[in-house]
Amino acid sequence: MLRRPVTMLLPRARILTTRTIPVRYAHLTTTSHHYRPLKITANPKMTRSLRDAVRKHNAGAVWTAYHALHENNQLDKLPAEYHSMALQSFRIKKLVAYGPEEMEIIKERLLFIWQHMQQAGYKPDVRDYNHIIDFFGRAGDWDACNKYWKELESKSVSASSTLWSGELTPNVYSYNLMMRAAIMTQQPEQVFVIVNKMKSAGIQPNGFTIDTMIEAHGRLGNVRGADRLFQERYGPKESTQKKAEAAAAVAQQPKKSRFASLLQSYSAPPPAENPDLLGTLIHDSTALDTTKQKQRPSTHTFVALMDAHGRKGNLRGVEYIYNTMVPGYNVKPDLEIYNSMIRWYCEHRNADKARRVFFDLERSGLKPNVVTFNYLFRHEALRERNPRTAETLLDFMTNMYDLRPLQSMYRALIKSYNKRNQEEDADRLFREYTASKQSSSQR
């Protein structure tokens, strides 16, 4: 006699009345017909709300949906990728646009998800670690970056992710984000320590790595190192014959480099008793690039190089990069390059040239952003102490480009008006500032 499949013994009423999504079942014992789901998923309506909020890049809605799942004890039933997507919805895009209250809110929500995704049994992936290191780097918290980096390293041997296959090991993005964190936390010397760790791990640097190293040189005041690294990485290759000719010409007349006019007063070789700022540390870090195939610099590369010269007050160098090197490499200037030019002209009180670059920006078809206006605004409000002109700039950016002024702009103007005993203007701006702050908190 043939036995009927055990699935035929399942009462029909149980199939019709179940409210769970899974259809697979497992036996509890061999002598019983009791069944339980292998996995119970979260409430589909609540899960859909979270997914839709992530797709729309609405961090506020993501928080509402995730917190609702927590309140209804649904987080342990949420698929792992949903935790990761929720976590990565909370990020800092333009640091200048965030006030301290907003930063603290984002931090609290990010750490809430980080804690509860692990309590629900889902281990963070390397991409999740990269995201949280990126956040704390932008937030200026170097201690937190080190904490999560060490945690990532401690899990790199044995731990594997429930979300992605493979070992939980730092990748090139992890190292790059730690380098950026060192820059953002005013510790550029740490960039070269991280690069050496990157070399030891057998990970090859990419363009982002080189650009960050150039920026680190500039922040340390080592313009010569920044220019040398650019030349080694992106300069044209010389044939053996040209090298021989150049060596023969040295005895008669030193060969001018491509950057002669750029580095005239900043890049002369230092005395023997005064080596590069970071000595062998920087030398070892940059040496890894000399044998690699030359690549094309990006706009980020040129911004890093311009910033290095701008910090030293070498506006001739900044202009040379903008007018000669950028077009020489067939790189089209983007908003970041224009902003860097405006920044250094304003920093060194050359408002006329800053305005010319602004007109170049407009003619290029690009739209200025709040960072662009912030450099011009701070020049007028703080350096030139001209609050009327600064307020005109705010009206222009609002009416012409529909850009919302930063809270720091309002604070600077209110302070400037109060110093001049212009209390009516200060009160008026304070009311606008308060309204702007309330609008920001409601988003």
From TrEMBL:
- One Pfam match, given by its short name, reads PPR_2
Keyword Electron transport set for record: no
The record, for InterPro entries, names: PPR_rpt, TPR-like_helical_dom_sf
The answer to whether the entry has keyword Metal-binding is no
Q: Outline the PPR repeats, range by range.
A: 125-159, 171-205, 334-368
Top-level taxon in the UniProt lineage: Eukaryota
Q: Report keywords, A-Z.
A: Repeat
Q: Give the residues annotated as coiled coil.
A: none
Checking Gene3D superfamilies in the record gives: Tetratricopeptide repeat domain
Question: Which family is it part of?
Answer: Belongs to the CCM1 family.
- Give the NCBIfam families listed for this entry: PPR (TIGR00756)
Q: What is this protein called?
A: Uncharacterized protein
The organism encoding this protein is Phascolomyces articulosus
